[in-house]
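Co-fold these.
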Amino acid sequence: MQTATQPDNVVQTNRFADLFARKPQGLLNLYITAGYPGLHDTVPLLRTLAEAGADILEIGVPFSDPLADGPVIQQTSTVALRNGMTLRRLLDELQGVRQYLPNTPMLLMGYLNPVMQLGMEEFCRRASEAGIDGVILPDLPAEEYADFYQETFRRYNLRKVFLITPQTSEARIRRLDELTDAFLYLVSGPGLTGGNQTADTSAQETYLRRIAQMNLRNPRLVGFGIADRASFNQACQHANGAIIGSALLRAIEGADDPHAAARQFVQSIR
Amino acid sequence: MSFQPTARGYYGQFGGAFIPEMLYPNVEELREQYLSILADPGFQEEYQQLLRDYVGRPTPLFRAKRLSERYGATIYLKREDLCHTGAHKVNNTVGQILLAERLGKKRIIAETGAGQHGVATATVCALRGLECIVYMGAVDMERQKPNVARMRMLGAEVRPATSGSKTLKDATNEAIRDWISNPTDTHYIIGSVVGPHPYPDLVARLQSVISEEIRKQLLEQAGRELPNYVVACVGGGSNAAGAFYHFLDEPSVQLVAVEAAGHGVHTDKSAATSVLGRPGIIHGSRTLLMQDEHGQITEPHSISAGLDYPGIGPLHAFLADSGRAKFVAVTDEDALQAAQLCSRLEGIIPALETAHAFSALDQLELKPTDVVVLNLSGRGDKDLETYLRELHLA
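Predicted complex below.
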């Protein structure tokens, strides 16, 4: 039996709360696929992104069938799996990442099946030991989470981030807001990651304004289709920040020096 | 033991609705409304009329004399191959198109493996004047060309799925991605008893007309409602769900689900999910799933595009897990031989999928008094190129 105790340094930590208190606006959450472009690039790239100005780091666990993701993340996931990245390997690599990145909130984003095969308890324990703050599992519905996993997440001081879309009802948004204390992930419009949701600026603004006026408990970050300074700034007008993944990965793709490419990309946003 | 899903769509430990939030409003709308729409007299009247006058139901239950002699038992064939469009798939699409209309949807998407579901969807979309987009694995478009042509003739757009193994799983991924991208005006007509709740139950109910008719027809022809065996092939499992449905609570009826062994169950080219799968999540459902030790979904293999799927519907996972159904596996080669046998003994060319069910007769220990109903789920026109090549008839 695994004991349910966690390392002492984790118990009291809420890096999200610390961050949002320190910097309530203009937060930049950057996503990379673990094991991309090379198997061992994950932790070095996280360090580069944090140094370049990322406020939150989101680490994608590659999956063979990423249903909510567009072509870029599908492709990076395929490459990462071919490189040999696995959830176990990633969790191993992340042990010790906190010595370099003591304060930056870090999230794992992945699909449910690899997590289930490892076991939810084991996943939470290893993630917590690595100092991970939160988890995004898009295909784990809120109801299943509340009934079966919320207690485990709490025990390991992990926060579950929920997605909200323009179609999510007000009642459901309030329920999801109650279920988390990290942030709410506002999907910018209809479509997949890396899409062109932000093209319809007026629809997006109406949606983000509507959510902003709900006075929710949690901060809000906007994701999907945020690709450059213009779309980042636009998203930040009615939210606390935004999430960029596909555009960053596109910038890294094929670069001789992925670190230089990543730094340059972050500078183009800020 | 209950074979009906719980309110959250569970059959035992299998089922549920593991969907991203983007799909929640659509799936929730469907979940809230499907039972009342299916029970609505107006819906039923229209559905039954279309099944009769458009699909051609009831389909015959045919006593196959020469096959019966060969196997030393009485074998009946449920002739779903005689449905309009050539397979059982249309039972579901007729029902779902009426449902989509009642939900106010204007645009229909579907995935297809062998192309039969795609054709059946394109057909009902033409009938009702709705836009139709069918996702099909690029490999399957190549091996089921006649069905691609039929879909195009019917006015559907066929979009190739080019990721992964370029087969049914990948086509389903693309259809789900389309639904995420079109969250308000689109209905996704899933073709099998897979996907998030309520789809497995919805599709099983729409296909259950098969076993409803079998019971009546067997009573008329054999003086008994219950056969000893019901045999059906399983990819996702829609024809099997329909053929089993009204026998699930009749323990004297042995249900036989036939999976594709590909090159053999213990090779790396197989689609025998009940043997090779472990509980996992695919396409919104917790079910038996072929996957590696890290939870990555592995690529199945079957010569038959309709059985080439790494999961099975959650009802079937439960039937396998609980032992209610016997699962057997048939290789590519044995299926081809069975297709030839059925063609030459009964004058019926079955679909490659159905050929697996025929081959499974070899694996049953039949007694002369046994009555077997085999669900002849589809006709083999689409597979002629494969048959001629593989059986060296060209």
